[in-house]
Amino acid sequence: MYWLVGLMTVAIFVLIAGGVLLEIRPQFALRIRPWYRPVLGTELLVFVGAQVALLALGIRDVLAADPAMVAAAAQGAREISTGMGLAIIGVGLPTGLSTIGAGIAVGPIGAASLAAVMERPEALGRSLIFLGLAEGIAIYGLVVSILLLNRI
């Protein structure tokens, strides 16, 4: 199973190295244009195939676990009540909803700030402040979730 993890790691590093190489030397893309798409497609196919194989082998290993170890792990586990489950869901709601709200806010603000900076480059600082304020909504939700998690 370690060889699948190694294969996935190599596939990711090759994709990253190819992207960095094409970013550093864009003229290199003109020389390799006929074959870089099939190579990147092959790398992506290898990565997805290794992920599926890792999932299949991992499920088989989990199902073939030693029953004594499973019983020992189950004995140390606490049972979660309905109230505790609802409390955990309630802890996650502020982060999820605030992230959605921040995404809704950042979209139009980012588009408008990009247009403003293209017309007047000196407006960059002010537009970054507005983007930061919109993104702060998500951070506030995360802080609220952490505070609620400490109460459980």
What does this molecule look like?
With 152 residues, the chain is mostly helical. It has two domains: 2-76; 82-151, F1FO ATP Synthase. It is 89% helix and 0% strand. Helix 1 packs antiparallel against helix 2. It is flat. The protein starts with a helix and ends with a helix.
Q: What about the largest sheet? A: none
Count the helices. How many? 5
Overall geometric form: flat
Order of helices and strands: HHHHH
Mean pLDDT: 80
Indicate the low-confidence ranges by residue numbers: none
Q: How many extended strands? A: 0
**Helix share of residues?**
over 70%
Give the class from helix and strand content and strand pairing. Answer: mainly alpha
End-to-end Cα distance: 38 Å
Could you tell me the radius of gyration in angstroms? 24 Å
Return the domain count. 2
Proportion of residues in extended strands: under 5%
Keywords:
152 residues; 0% strand; F1FO ATP Synthase; mainly alpha; 2 domains; 89% helix
Summarize the structure.
The protein has 152 residues and is an all-alpha fold. 89% of the residues lie in helices and 0% in strands.
Outline the fold blueprint.
Blueprint: H1 2-24, H2 27-63, H3 67-76, H4 82-119, H5 124-151
Helix pairs in contact: 1-2, 4-5
